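Might I ask for a little of your time on a matter of protein folding? The record follows directly beneath this note:
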Amino acid sequence: MSEERLRRVRDRVRTFPDFPVPGVLFRDISPLLKDPGAFRTLIDLLEEHLRASFPRIDFIVGLDSRGFLIGPPLAQRLGIGFVPIRKKGKLPGPTESVSYTLEYGKAELEIQSDAVEPGQKVVIVDDLLATGGTMCAACELMKRLKAEVLECLVIIELKLLKGSEKLESIPFYSLLQYD
């Protein structure tokens, strides 16, 4: 991975202090999404990482909602399908759901019960890993469906919050890291 290409992505992440609450430094990927060249570079880097790491992936699983922005183009590049994990109440038909704790309360994620089959290999994607609650909940949903999680992949990791430690034995990859 070239430093120049990585810098092109990093330069399109902006910060907002004290958002959504005082003391938080919010990492915003909106400029990255607005710049087609930088976004292409992002997808190139993620695709190269996955191709080098895994000979077979059945699905990219994206987390509501920003995982939906990077998941489909990445899946399309890899020639595989995309599966959404949504917030509770957004999917039709039979679903599996899991509750989890956020910094500011509780939330619930769900996936359609037939979204993946036992033994299928998936990579879970999102824009950012902070405390790890949402990603752990997604891994629990995959476990319930008996899928094999090859890796949890994000654009940005907030290292100080130690979210990757909560993933325990599940491989984790972040393109950009911030303290």
The first helix runs from residue 3 to 10.
